[in-house]
Design goal:
Helix content is 38%, strand content 17%. By secondary structure, the chain is α/β, with parallel strands linked by helices. The protein has an eight-stranded mixed β-sheet with strand order 1-2-4-3-5-8-6-7, sandwiched between helices. Helix 3 crosses helix 10, helix 7 crosses helix 12 and helix 7 crosses helix 13.
Length: 345
């Protein structure tokens, strides 16, 4: 386990380790995926798994903390995990659900970044720009990922270097434990862009090229909107907002193009500008751009996303019930009209 002083400075990691040690966790499998070096010590990256690990079954994976400043992503993922663990004590439907699905939680991918209060990892590299995939289209200057210097944000790393340990660890895990499932969803939780809560799907690399599973993702969106008509998420391709190089989910999704399995990685981008508007003093604190400071606001954010996380779990579990309906030309056509009007014949 991790040294005392580091845990004091990184309460998110302390919370993960406390949760692992708690007695009710006979349902929970824990794996340390790697140790990220930090000075003379190292910080673990954990994967926690609930449910049935049979790779014939669908799986859902909740990810947080790829960007060290975005602590709220880690907290949202942990809040959902804690609520699932509580339900295991009393909720028979939940124990039944766990027979039929696998749930992975990777709450803190970039522990050194979170400890240092930086978006990047300890080497100054933005893990979400670090995959070996390039956009052919024009990306935002710097923000789309660059190779100029680790002193500037959004640095991709040197072209000759392999992927960073944290990025590689996440990709290896997804390839080994997630992609083999016949149907898998990911929800990767971030914060910091825009006023709204947004759900993004690939590609980040192209504004003109839709993903192969556009009909499926459009139908999933429709299911969500019809089941929860009062929700206020926007659900769109990431490319509607900005293009980037090196996106890890683009990279992983591209690996699955010739599979019959369906792997749909989603990103939750929690709109933090709203928190700043309500509390402009947050801007004095670098964390404040990405993390609500006032406790009542943190609670509201944690509460607010549980419905989405629960919906995605149930959509994964019941994928056979709706996936066929998504395979119509009509779905793909509606999706193209909505998001890729220029791709019309
Ligand atoms: Zn982020």
């Amino acid at each position: 386990m991790t040294g005392e002083s580091i845990l004091e400075r990184l309460p998110e990691l302390r919370r993960i380790e406390a949760l692992i040690q708690r007695d009710h966790n006979e349902f929970l499998t824990t794996e340390i995926l790697c140790h990220v070096p930090y000075r003379d010590e190292s910080l673990p990256v954990y994967a926690l798994t609930l449910g049935n690990k049979d790779q014939c079954l669908p799986s859902i994976t909740y990810v947080g903390g790829i960007h060290g400043l975005e602590r709220i992503g880690t907290l949202v993922v942990l809040a959902f995990l804690e609520s699932m663990l509580e339900r295991l004590h009393w909720d028979l439907t939940f124990t039944d659900i766990l027979q039929r699905v696998r749930i992975n939680v990777l709450p803190l991918i970039n522990p050194v970044g979170m400890l240092n209060h930086t978006r990047a990892n300890g080497n100054g590299i933005d893990l979400m720009r670090n995959a070996p995939v390039d956009s052919d289209e024009r990306t935002v200057w710097l923000g789309g990922g660059h190779r100029i210097s680790p002193l500037l944000p959004w640095y991709r790393g040197n072209i000759d270097e392999p992927m960073q340990l944290e990025a590689r660890t996440l990709c290896d895990y997804v390839k080994r434990e997630v992609i083999p499932s016949p149907f898998s969803l990911v929800l990767d939780c971030h914060s910091g862009f825009g006023y709204h809560n947004q759900i993004w799907f690939p590609y980040a690399k192209s504004r003109i090229e839709p993903i192969k599973h556009l009909g499926e993702v459009y139908y999933l969106r429709q299911l969500f909107m019809q089941t929860y008509p009062y929700q206020n998420y926007r659900f769109e391709p990431q490319s509607q907002h900005y293009l980037t190089h090196g996106d890890l989910w683009d990279y992983l999704y591209l690996q699955t193009l010739d599979h019959s399995n369906i792997f749909l990685p989603l990103t939750l981008e929690m709109g933090s500008w709203r928190w700043i508007r309500k509390n402009p003093l947050q801007m004095r604190n670098s964390l404040g751009f990405f993390h609500p400071i006032k406790p009542h606001r943190i609670n509201r954010v944690l509460r607010g996303h549980l419905v989405l996380m629960e919906f995605l779990l149930h959509a994964t579990l019941s994928y056979r019930q709706w996936l066929i309906a998504s395979h119509t030309r009509d779905m793909a056509r509606q999706a193209l009209e909505l998001w890729y009007p220029d791709a019309q014949p």
